[in-house]
Amino acid sequence: MSWARSRLCTTLSLAAVSARGATTEGAARRGLSAWPAPQEPGMEYQDAVRTLNTLQTNASYLEQVKRQRSDPQAQLEAMEMYLARSGLQVEDLNRLNIIHVTGTKGKGSTCAFTERILRNYGLKTGFFSSPHMVQVRERIRINGKPISPELFTKHFWCLYNQLEEFKDDSHVSMPSYFRFLTLMAFHVFLQEKVDLAVVEVGIGGAFDCTNIIRKPVVCGVSSLGIDHTSLLGDTVEKIAWQKGGIFKPGVPAFTVVQPEGPLAVLRDRAQQIACPLYLCPPLEALEEVGLPLSLGLEGAHQRSNAALALQLAHCWLERQDHQDIPELKVSRPSIRWQLPLAPVFRPTPHMRRGLRDTVWPGRTQILQRGPLTWYLDGAHTTSSVQACVHWYRQSLERSKRTDGGSEVHILLFNSTGDRDSAALLKLLQPCQFDYAVFCPNVTEVSSIGNADQQNFTVTLDQVLLRCLQHQQHWNCLAEKQASSNLWSSCSPDPAGPGSLLLAPHPPQPTRTSSLVFSCISHALLWISQGRDPIFQPQSLPRNLLNHPTANSGASILREAAAIHVLVTGSLHLVGGVLKLLDPAMSQ
């Protein structure tokens, strides 16, 4: 038995012992929030995360949900059952004064803006989001900060042990990874007595496990697009129907400008549910009655997210009878696209500072490190990659060198799930990268020492083969761009796995050189060449420069005056890069 498996078995054994010692009825009466932290040895944070990872099946969860789509009510009833087993009732969630937000792109940024605005009012905020960048506890935040390892560990074991008490003959005692974390977030927020909770939907809306929330204060829908098609549908209209599933009778909801088709679906969905739905005016309309607004998140697309966040925050303050509410400049909303336009108001100083001070790692984030500039954006849909490309090219234009020094442009990319990586890569080609680098979403070849980065749903061989397919797509696109005659002889499927440590494509004058590395750290080692002042590994893998492309490229990178690296395609990839480039995020 391996060390990791032995540790996991020990942890599970300890959890079972603790569970048998609990009094189920008493725990249910008190609620988990009243439980003390377990004192058994070996139950520190990493052990809690390793045990959580045994429930970690985002891929399996999606398959399960797809099988259950014909009976969505059963899914929500199952989540309510787990909530009751944990010692809470659905009505208890009403005390959290929830802001519920869905969308295809920008919902996390919208939540981050909204939380920061309301925190500026002196309110104690809870924020539940997904996925995490570096540590899983980032998903559950109090006043903008991830909960401590101690608090995470305490609540994890309380919830895990309580649910173990209900193990039945089918041994189905535990919800899946995301459901478990959703339940845990509710318990944390209730114990910490937050004034409000901003809750980001996981996938979709109607069937998402967060949709057991019955009485949010306000709901929001950010920009819609194509994603998770096997689960949500293959058109934006079908996806809009899923997103509109979070609407509740009598609860105000806001959305941004959408294409006519999905907007009509949202409007009809709101009417069927008796939900008052409003269309957000653009940020420019609010600036016209006030002053220009500065955003903490870069990119033109963030203005739409900020406009939605302002309406959500304003509505929450109004419905909670808060004293400092902006004066409305349009008292009777106008109608546009058969939807009432949300009122225009002058943002308060708290709102202005909130927008300016918002930080949301891995989204249009820039790290300047000596000659290296890292551009990090977890865009993973066609529309979000388009926005990413626009932001990246604008950022390059602002940083253009005037001294004539040599510059190297690198793409670091990965894509997972059922996303069309060829379509995403095609959107990135106009950036004219010198090198395209592909790697899986793992920081090291072995992640035993870091439970936060473990993924049990796929093998290393599987993710490397996926990276080789990305490389083949990229090379085919480059060949098509260079000569249409070459396209017919190019296959999108790799002929074979090649080296699992490094799978380069020979450099040719008509296309970007491409490389595949076995993990993020090896990719960053090659890209940075020891020139990043913070990312300074002690040694290089012996075979890192075996291929001529890697070897010649290393010489170019060591001599370049500036190296620009765009990291995109997956939030998990961006998170792995941040873990290595910003060690503080692992503290």
UniProtKB/TrEMBL annotation:
Kindly list the cofactors needed.
a monovalent cation
Q: Per UniProt, where does Mg(2+) 2 bind?
A: 228
Reported EC number(s) for this entry are 6.3.2.17
State any single GO MF term. metal ion binding
Q: What keywords would UniProt list here?
A: ATP-binding, Cytoplasm, Ligase, Magnesium, Membrane, Metal-binding, Mitochondrion, Mitochondrion inner membrane, Nucleotide-binding, One-carbon metabolism, Phosphoprotein, Signal, Transit peptide
Domain of life, per lineage: Eukaryota
Identify the pathway.
Answer: Cofactor biosynthesis; tetrahydrofolylpolyglutamate biosynthesis
Q: How is the cofactor bound?
A: A monovalent cation.
Binding-site positions, ATP = 363, 377
Signal peptide boundaries: 1-21
**Compartments where found:** Cytoplasm; Mitochondrion inner membrane; Mitochondrion matrix
Quick check: keyword Cell inner membrane in the entry? Answer: no
According to its UniProt record, this protein's enzyme class is ligase
Gene Ontology biological-process entries? glutamate metabolic process; one-carbon metabolic process
Sites where the protein binds Mg(2+) 1:
130, 200
Principal location: cytoplasm
Q: Which reaction does it catalyse?
A: (6S)-5,6,7,8-tetrahydrofolyl-(gamma-L-Glu)(n) + L-glutamate + ATP = (6S)-5,6,7,8-tetrahydrofolyl-(gamma-L-Glu)(n+1) + ADP + phosphate + H(+)
Q: Per the record, what is one GO cellular component?
A: cytosol
Q: What's the subunit arrangement here?
A: Monomer.
The similarity comment for this entry is: Belongs to the folylpolyglutamate synthase family.
The entry's function note states: Catalyzes conversion of folates to polyglutamate derivatives allowing concentration of folate compounds in the cell and the intracellular retention of these cofactors, which are important substrates for most of the folate-dependent enzymes that are involved in one-carbon transfer reactions involved in purine, pyrimidine and amino acid synthesis.
Q: What is this protein called?
A: Folylpolyglutamate synthase
